[in-house]
Amino acid sequence: MSARATTLPAELLASGLIWQADRLASPAWPGWPTGFPVLDAELPGGGWPRDAIIELISDRPGIGELQLMLPMLRSSPPARWAAWVAPPFLPYAPALAASGFDLGRLLLIRPHDHARSIWATRQALNSGACHAVALWSRNIDASALRRLQLAAEASATPLFLYRPNAAARSPSPAALRLQLLARPDGLGVVILKRKGPVTHTLLRLALPSRLRRSPAHDALDSLAPARPAAAGIHPGPR
Hints:
The strands form 2 sheets. A 9-stranded mixed beta sheet has the order 9-8-7-1-6-5-2-4-11. Strands 3-10 form a two-stranded antiparallel sheet. Helix 5 (114-127) runs parallel beside helix 6. The radius of gyration is 19 Å and the shape is globular. It has helices at 3-15, 37-40, 70-74, 93-98, 114-127, 142-155, 209-212, and strands at 53-57, 81-85, 89-91, 106-109, 130-136, 159-163, 176-183, 186-193, 202-205, 220-225, 233-235. By secondary structure, it is of the alpha/beta class.
């Protein structure tokens, strides 16, 4: 074997093109800060991946799961949107506004069925106009997951995918999978998958007390399930 061949792996390791499973990967771009330093310290790139699916797994809506996205969304450039596809509840505007989120940058997409939800999510990703996209789905197949991952990569747009606990037992192309747990002092997070060594540590995230005391601390109207409405994109009030 030539000297060139023996040194090539070392060069690739130094360049970051090869990821070693015993350490956090070094992505080409730093991640978007989550707003929670204890979580950033455990994520490759120090934050949310910019071009991948991020799965947030829980059977209990309303435990603070939207607050994981809010710090990133508050930093959205003025010309970019946040698209939410098929949320299980109507967004609670007062809680969102109180968190500092610009309601004028919200696109609420409420399709009639699951197939249209997947289609709308792909269009939002492919548009290049969104800072982030969120999709709520209880039953998404592997083919749809791969298509969404490719769309997230091509557009360099993160997709936050909210899934039930049963999804954790199935493989996924998502770059990051987080199990979310309700806690009286905030939100518990267990990293199920990342580009880095396996960890089972429970991360304890403190949520803003102002929102935690609110009946809608997760910025969703927990009292009113989303009512049927014509499919389409409904921007927030300006």
